[in-house]
Design a protein that fits this description.
Helices cover about 40% and strands about 15% of the residues. Strand 6, helix 7 and strand 7 form a beta-alpha-beta unit. The radius of gyration is 19 Å and the shape is globular. The strands form two sheets. It has a five-stranded parallel sheet with strand order 7-6-5-8-9. The protein contains twelve helices and nine strands. It has about 300 residues and is of the alpha/beta class. Bound molecules: phosphoric acid mono(formamide)ester. Phosphoric acid mono(formamide)ester (CP) binds next to helix 2.
Length: about 300
């Protein structure tokens, strides 16, 4: 098996060489996405289930597309419309899907650690589509893929991540992954939204955004996760936008060729203004396309693929 584990639970568990393999394989998958006929027979007869206990547009749809482009069968289960509503446990739900033939279960869950719990209880591969405030490894892989496609490397780049770091599984996975790959990671946000573990993870924390942006190769704005916050962590979204929102002036502190990224969904006018979100530095839509390629690569590698996947 090209990846050491049967599961993709977090970037903490992945070696730099495995991250490199995923990114290289995703490059081949990206070529497939450029073809008129995008389907290849690689995973014919295999079944991928998406099991989502939280809302998603990008992650769920791109895993389903990724599986379909590789000719796998797909089933989509959401907690809101499944027997979870009748009290079925996570383990029983997953085992039910497994005995129907699921080879991969892609799960999003509000509890940190839910994917680890499941992975030790099913034979199928479990892919973390975001667990609580813990990790969102496939988002970080697609972010790294997008950066590498533009900059040709990750090592030595300065990446500034701005926003609600405390509640962001995207920030956590990106910090872990980018540091492993040799990038310098700066994080900026209100002091109340900066967790204490940042230095341990290898990132440098700033409570003002301007010094974090100076000379950055990449500026990554994050969504304010109001659904995970208790009240009173910052005065108002208007105040947040004034102090931390990425606009033209703030982006100009970064390198002239800096990339602007956002994992989505965006709150326009809060984390990022429309002028820069839709401007020439923005690779936000490209991140979404690259997400399909990266998820194709992961399914291919988990289900026994070896070469470049094409
Ligand atoms: N970036 C991300 O995870 O988006 P979704 O919530 O739409 O999946």
């Amino acid at each position: 098996m090209p990846l050491k584990s049967k599961d993709v639970l977090g970037l903490k568990e992945m070696e730099p060489s495995e991250i490199e393999l995923v990114l290289d394989t995703a490059a081949s998958m990206r070529d497939i996405l450029g073809r008129t006929i995008k389907k290849v027979p690689t995973l014919r007869g295999r079944t991928v289930v998406t099991l989502f206990y939280e809302a998603s547009t990008r992650t769920r749809a791109s895993f389903e597309l990724a599986a379909k482009y590789l000719s796998a069968d797909t089933i989509s289960v959401t907690a809101a419309t499944s027997s979870v509503q009748k009290g079925e446990t996570l383990k029983d739900t997953a085992r039910t899907l497994e005995v129907m033939g699921a080879d991969v279960v892609v799960m999003r869950h509000p509890a940190s650690g839910a994917c680890h719990f499941l992975a030790s209880r099913v034979r199928a591969s479990v892919v973390n589509g975001g667990d609580g405030t813990h990790e969102h490894p496939t988002q970080a892989l697609l972010d790294m893929f997008t950066i590498r496609r533009h900059k040709g490397r990750l090592k030595g780049l300065v990446v500034a991540i701005v926003g609600d770091i405390y509640h962001s599984r995207v920030a956590r996975s990106n910090i872990i992954g980018l540091v492993k790959m040799g990038a310098e990671v700066r994080v900026a946000g209100p002091a109340t939204l900066l967790p204490p573990c940042l230095e341990e993870l290898g990132a440098r924390a700033y409570s003002r955004v301007e010094p974090a942006l100076e000379g950055a190769d990449v500026v990554m704005a994050l969504r304010l996760q109001l659904e995970r916050q208790q009240r009173g962590l910052f005065p108002s979204t208007r105040e947040y936008a004034r102090l931390y929102g990425i606009d033209r002036n703030r982006l100009s502190l970064a390198r002239p060729d800096a990339l602007l990224m956002h994992p989505g969904p965006m709150n326009r006018g809060v984390e990022v203004c429309s002028y820069v979100a839709d401007g020439p530095a923005s690779v936000i839509e490209e991140q979404v396309t690259n997400g399909v390629a990266v998820r194709m690569a992961l399914l291919y590698l988990l289900l026994g693929g070896g070469g470049d996947g094409s």
